[in-house]
Amino acid sequence: MGRIRILSDNIANKIAAGEVVERPASVVKELLENSLDAGGKRLRIEIEGGGRRLIRLADDGCGMLRDDALLAFERHATSKLSDVKDLLSIATLGFRGEALPSIASVSRLLLETRSAGESTGTSIEISGGKLLRCDELPAPPGTVITVQDLFFNVPARKKFLRSDQTELAHIASLATHYALAHPDKAFLLRHGTADLLDLTPVSSLRERVYQVFGSRLLDDLVDLGEVERTLKATAAGEPVNRVFRLRGFISAPQVQKLNRNSIYLFVNGRLIRDRMLLHALSAAYHNLMPPACFPVALLFLDCDFEEVDVNVHPAKTEVRFHHGTFVHDFLRDTIRERLIEARPAAPVPVPAHSPQPAVELPFSEFTQRMESAGIESMTYPLASPERIEDLPTFQLRDPAPLAQRLDFSGPPIPFLEAHGRVPDTHGSFPLGSYETADLSELSDLRPLGQLHESFIVAAGRDGLWIIDQHVAHERILFEQVLRQQAGGNPESQRLLMPIVIELTAAQQIEYARIADELTKSGFESEPFGRRTIAVKSAPAGVGAGDIEKLILEILEIAEAELRQASLEDLRRALAASIACRAAIKINMRLDASKMQWLLSELAATSCPMSCPHGRPIALRYTMREILRSFHRI
Ligand code: ADP
Ligand code: MG
């Protein structure tokens, strides 16, 4: 007798469950997708014990007929595909017909469902893949699926589950994703007795974002609007136009997350994790945000179903685009252009409407670790102050250590909060156009003075501004160096004496590789004896004392990061280093005309919101926030 046997359905389902059901959140994902495919408008998710004890999803969708309800637990049973051709254009979230049998094979599952067209409903109980009973049941139209004791019969899997809190955070993230994708539906996520999400239907994505994340984040988000780009392609030898649409929200560069948990990507309504799209997003924030930080993004890409293959992964979280490069560049360019156009300014934190508890759950243990470690505080080079007795400076009596950034992240001062509104004895303030939150008006600002000889304090139509003079100048110089590199006319200064720098063997190799680019950026240098180079000219503005450090820094970047990177990346890195060294430092007195010059030059840059290393340049305290803080509105 041969040794090959056909596996029983039960074993096949358990194997499929290994791919489809990785953790409680995967069950929630499959159940939610089914409820959405069924047209549910009110989705209620109940969780106990991080989802291992109980997951219940109740919807008011189309329900199932009795025969269909039984069939749904057969492998490859689906109502969503009938022909192999359908696979090429999948419009529903589900299509593999694998989820229900897989889940039922590794849990105790109860299905209660009624189709609106039938007078009674059906109740089916399955345990570890074995049908226990199938009864009639009086029930409202819709479907309730209860999954208990996940992995009770697969101890090996159960061992791999993380803490309840972690599993719950995955579930919350997932439910949040789908809630964002469907603003018109009501979502409830309950863990034990706590409501983590409780969202009533709203008519726009903007309102849903407000419900989920609160007003504070909404202020920091830039609306992409709806952008369309058409690709001319051929299908079966015929030319066709493929339209790609992108909409959603992206955060201003000052919102910097330590991981990708706040990036929500949807392709044709399907939640996905895609390396290429994530890369396009990072590329859009290049030189606007530090390399290891991530934005908040909520992106909905819609395209012809033929342009994207969703049948790549059993959990349906990966896709393959037929024209990947086109999609990548469309995303990157659209996001970058919109960021540059909107020029969002960083606000000073004020109390605001708070987000739903679900978004405050740490996504994973890893995130928790990262967050408790805190963000490394950034340090500035200190420079000797230059005396110009022109403008008043606001000196704090007890200066904070200068190497630290001012910290605006603490809790707001709760003054007067407890006493309610104060009587209005000063007349109301005319509230007009104090809504602008972008950096276009930098050039109209009136500098009031300097704080700590490091930050320019300025008054504008829109409120009070604080500008970091070093990073502001860095941005100005960065764009200037880039322009000069491109035009082949770098501004350079001849040194009285050439500076001789000793290089290691590795640095010599890097030097040979990037020597041309150094020249294009304003250096004049050449090999000089064994393992040394002589620098005769350097980019304008870089102090003689900084030149060696700058060259070594550039060689180090070239070695560490830019081996694989494009020429453009190398040029940008060079420009960023030069700008950083040549920019005025903090702890430097500036007179009124210098401050004014700095502000108007900054206003003329394409990205006045962050320095090339991604630090914010300007903070604004809007009139509205000032009025609110003084209880005038
Ligand atoms: P798929 O979603 O890939 O079709 P599933 O195993 O997830 O496969 O579900 C099998 C079938 O059960 C679906 O095609 C659908 O007809 C039915 N079904 C599942 N969940 C629901 C629900 N909440 N409401 C109505 N029908 C459902
Ligand atoms: Mg499904």
Note down, in words, how this protein is organized.
Helices cover 32% and strands 24% of the residues. The protein has an 8-stranded mixed sheet. A 6-stranded mixed sheet has the order 16-24-20-19-18-17. By secondary structure, it is an alpha+beta fold. A hairpin with a 3-residue loop joins strand 18 and strand 19 (455-460). Helix 2 runs parallel beside helix 6 and helix 14 crosses helix 15 (544-560). The chain contains 18 helices and 24 strands. The structure holds adenosine-5'-diphosphate and magnesium ion.
Concise summary:
It contains 18 helices and 24 strands. With 633 residues, it is of the alpha+beta class. The longest helix is centred in the middle third of the chain and has 19 residues, at 324-342.
Overview features:
single chain; 633 residues; eight-stranded mixed β-sheet; six-stranded mixed β-sheet; 18 helices; 24% strand; elongated; binds magnesium ion
Which structural class do you get from the secondary structure elements?
alpha+beta
Figure out the total of helices.
Answer: 18
Rg calculated over all Cα atoms: 30 Å
Tell me the distance between the termini: 87 Å
The coarse silhouette is elongated
Low-confidence stretches: 364-436
The helix content is: 25-40%
User: What profile does the largest beta sheet have?
Assistant: 8 strands, mixed
Name the strands of the widest sheet in spatial order.
Answer: 5-4-3-6-2-1-7-8
Strand content: 15-25%
- The count of β-strands is 24
Bound molecules: adenosine-5'-diphosphate, magnesium ion
Mean pLDDT: 81
